[in-house]
Amino acid sequence: MFKQTLLATVIVFIVWSLIDFLVHGMLLTSAYQETAYLWRPEDQMHALLMSAVTLVFSFCVVSIYSYLIAPKSVSTGLKYGLILGIGVGTAVGIGSFCYMPIPLCLAGAWFGVNLVEITAAGIIVGYMVKEPATQIGGSSF
Questions:
Q1: Any bridge partners for residue 140, and if so which?
Q2: Please, what is the end-to-end C-alpha distance for the chain in angstroms?
Q3: DSSP state of 139
Q4: 45 φ/ψ angles, rounded to the nearest 5 degrees
Q5: Can the peptide bond before residue 71 be classed as cis, meaning omega within 30 degrees of 0?
Q6: By the 8 A CB rule, do 69 and 8 touch?
């Protein structure tokens, strides 16, 4: 199952990176420009660190499903992704609005993008990560 977990992590990382590029790099550009006083200048942002954070979080989301969630199916993955997406979206999007002077529309966008990304991750792991083979007499098949 470790190989499935690693492969699913890579796929989730790629999907999240593409969504982040589209949402944060294109769709929300004007919202970020309006709140430029909150952000580092682009030349001081840590793109490599952000990619590392995304990779670690991808691995955590996939590993929780792989090793702690049963039964494994696309349906279970979808439910897992929706529930986790609502939780993370609320914490990141709405939670940030509570202590940062960001517009409510930006907080809502952060909620939405987290919900979409983590739901997509749930579907991906539900499709890619399968139950381990049944053990009979010490061998698996």
A1: 135
A2: 13
A3: E
A4: -75, 150
A5: yes
A6: no
User: How many angstroms separate the Cα of 113 from the Cα of each of 6, 23, 24, 108, 126?
Assistant: 23, 8, 9, 9, 20
Would the pTM count as exceeding 0.70? yes
Condensed to tens digits (0 to 9), the pLDDT of residues 40-92 reads 988 898 999 999 999 999 999 999 999 999 999 999 999 999 999 999 999 99
141 is written with which tokens? 């098949």
Tokens representing 37?
A: 């006083």
Q: What angle do CA 85, 90, 96 make, to 5 degrees?
A: 130
Structure tokens that stand for 14 in this block: 């790629």
Opening angle at CA 110, ends 102 and 126, nearest 5? 165
Where are the alpha helices (H) located in 37-103, listed in sequence order?
47-68, 74-89, 95-99
